[in-house]
Amino acid sequence: MAINMRYVVDGSDFTTAGEASTAVKMKLKKLGIAPDIVRRVAIAMYEAEINMVIHAGGGVAEVELESDKIIIKLIDHGKGIADVDLAMREGYSTAPDAVRNLGFGAGMGLPNIKKYSDEMHIDTEVGKGTTVTIIINLQ
Amino acid sequence: MAEFHSVTLDFDKCRGCINCVKRCPTEAIRVKNGKAFIISERCIDCGECIRICPHHAKKAVYDKMSVIEGYEYRVALPAPSLYPQFNNLDSIDYVLDGLLRIGFDDVFEVAGAAELVSEMTRSMMKRSDCPKPLISNACPAIVKLIQVRFPKLLPHLHTLQPPVEVAARLARERAVKKSGLPADKIGVFFISPCPAKVTALRHPAGGERVVDGVLSISEVYMALLPEMKKIERPQAEQISGISGISWSYTGGEATALLLPHYLAADGIENSIKILDEIENDKLGGIDFVELDACFSGCVGGCLCIENPYIARTKVRYLRKYQPVTMSHLADYPGKEEKDFLFEDEVEYDPVLELASDPVKAMEIMLQIEEIEKKLPGIDCASCGSPTCACFAQDVATGKAELNDCVFLMKKELEGKLSGKEQNDGKATV
Ligand SMILES: Nc1ncnc2c1ncn2[C@@H]1O[C@H](COP(=O)(O)OP(=O)(O)O)[C@@H](O)[C@H]1O
Ligand code: SF4
Ligand SMILES: [Mg+2]
């Protein structure tokens, strides 16, 4: 048994960024998933969703909810990440000033995704795009 | 057992329109068989349906003025939002004196208690065990919202009793001393801006009832107005200043903490957004969060008379003539923070969960999705549920029938009609 959700994340609109993770959070609450886990999913997915908006011009969030885990894929066709190890470092950010002025770009997104998830994969190719996969166990 | 709610439906006045169904921020109202009904466990008593109902079929239940007659010694606890209901008020003492003229023997300003709460909160927030951000518990509709929707944030809720409860306790003690009467002859009555506080005080989070009745600002206002006109020089003396009075509107509570990093917001939708952000760890650096269900805060409560924006202007006018703070904990010898702490934590109320078993809940969610696919997605609410998604959930959980959807019915009818045409072949249109 699995529930699949798909959200298009608009890359041109900062104000709607976070809608997909908020919708997923609400579904998990309805399912009675433990509040701690809901919070981890929300934080990790939000970071990845925002990254698609500020670094990749938007993309798609595909969520597969199984009885024991949630698999979140954030797929974009943006510029890709040249050095993943570097990108994973706390505080590392290539966000332009305009974005930083909005309060994004602290360089904590990817490290936080790692911290709050049980598994995290980054598939990326420069010029082609990035897929961030987040897996969080529900029990 | 159905829980008590101040917000109720007047069955005879209800015309079964969908105004309240659409407006309710917690999707707690449905129309069934031509009449609205409120799903008790989802209702947070915010009063939105009362504001929007064109037929005045939604109302707040509160105690009538006559309840005070059952007590020998009566104490009024006016909410700070009572003051800006009056025009050209430059001293609160007129209001307090007025209360003594309409049947009360004593008055204890909730605004005064609010100053004590601010003082205690300031010292609590200096300690390292204070959660960050600390979330105000003064608006019961917001507390209920957190209880049903943001369980992760329950540890952030303030643990001090809100001003009305602090006022009630202090007022009762003072009344016993002043009157020399046994406690059961003393009646303590809150004058409330909203149904949320009526409900909360009937069933306080701490369990124990601290007031003997809750009256409405609107009714008390009507009784006060003629009496206040007769006052030449008021005898009563206020115990609140600018900081206590300012609790009547959004931001007043937060500013009284004298902290640079606070957030104050009004309206349920805004509050939900902000709570979501806090839950997602997106609101770093904020020490205190004040959320009010009503726009403008308690002056926007649906038992108030004055327009909330005009009321805010009046508070500003009134403030001009006031000292900053009038009440201090030191005025109550022997009283300290721990006398005003809640004993029990506020608990998670999982009313939004589809089922207590996650696997079962997941089955239901899958069903909901299947049903949703059949619906037009235009959220017309003719079925009696606020949105197509909500209707799908109602159907999946056995609370509605698929053919309550007018679109599906229309489709079915059209199908039948065209089927009939084909059958007799010769049908002319
Ligand atoms: N989806 C993405 N597409 C392209 N680059 C990305 C993407 N996600 C992250 N990055 C790169 O990784 C860096 C670090 O990301 P993150 O830790 O979230 O910090 P921040 O978003 O604050 O810059 C970003 O500055 C960016 O260079
Ligand atoms: S904001 Fe004030 S008046 Fe409105 S519901 Fe909350 S406590 Fe009541
Ligand atoms: Mg980021």
SSE layout and pairing:
The complex is a heterodimer of chains A (139) and B (429).
Chain A lengths: L1 E9 L8 H12 L4 H22 L1 E9 L2 E8 L7 H4 L9 H5 L7 H8 L2 E7 L3 E9 L2
Antiparallel strand pairs in A: 1-2, 2-3, 3-5, 4-5
Helix pairs in contact in A: 1-2, 2-5
Chain B lengths: L6 E3 L9 H5 L5 E4 L2 E4 L9 H5 L5 E3 L12 E6 L14 H9 L4 E2 L2 H16 L8 E2 L4 H10 L13 H17 L6 E7 L2 H8 L10 E4 H14 L11 H4 L6 H4 L6 E5 L1 H12 L8 E5 L15 H12 L38 H17 L13 H9 L9 H19 L5
Parallel strand pairs in B: 5-6, 5-8, 7-11, 8-9, 10-11
Antiparallel strand pairs in B: 1-4, 2-3
Report on this structure.
Chain A is α+β, with helices and mostly antiparallel strands. Chain A is built from five helices and five strands; from the N terminus they run E-H-H-E-E-H-H-H-E-E. Chain A has one domain (about 5-135): 2-Layer Sandwich (Heat Shock Protein 90), CATH 3.30.565. Chain A has a five-stranded antiparallel β-sheet, with helices on one face. In chain A, a hairpin with a 2-residue loop joins strand 2 (about 60-65) and strand 3 (about 70-75). The longest helix of chain A has 22 residues, at about 35-55. Chain A starts with a strand and ends with a strand. Chain B is α/β, with parallel strands linked by helices and about 425 residues long. Chain B has three domains: about 1-60, Alpha-Beta Plaits (2-Layer Sandwich); about 65-125 and about 160-250 and about 300-340, Rossmann fold (3-Layer(aba) Sandwich); about 355-429, 3-methyladenine DNA Glycosylase II, Chain A, domain 3 (Orthogonal Bundle), CATH 1.10.15. Chain B has helices at about 20-25, 50, 95-100, 110-125, 140-150, 165-180, 195-200, 215-230, 240-245, 250-255, 270-280, 310-320, 360-375, 390-395, 405-425; strands spanning about 5-10, 30, 35-40, 60, 75-80, 105, 135, 185-190, 215, 260-265, 290. In chain B, the strands form four sheets. Chain B has a four-stranded parallel β-sheet with strand order 6-5-8-9, sandwiched between helices. In chain B, strand 2 and strand 3 form a beta hairpin. In chain B, helix 13 (about 360-375) crosses helix 14 (about 390-395). The interface of A and B includes residues 38 and 65 of A. Bound molecules: adenosine-5'-diphosphate (ADP), iron/sulfur cluster (SF4) and magnesium ion (MG).
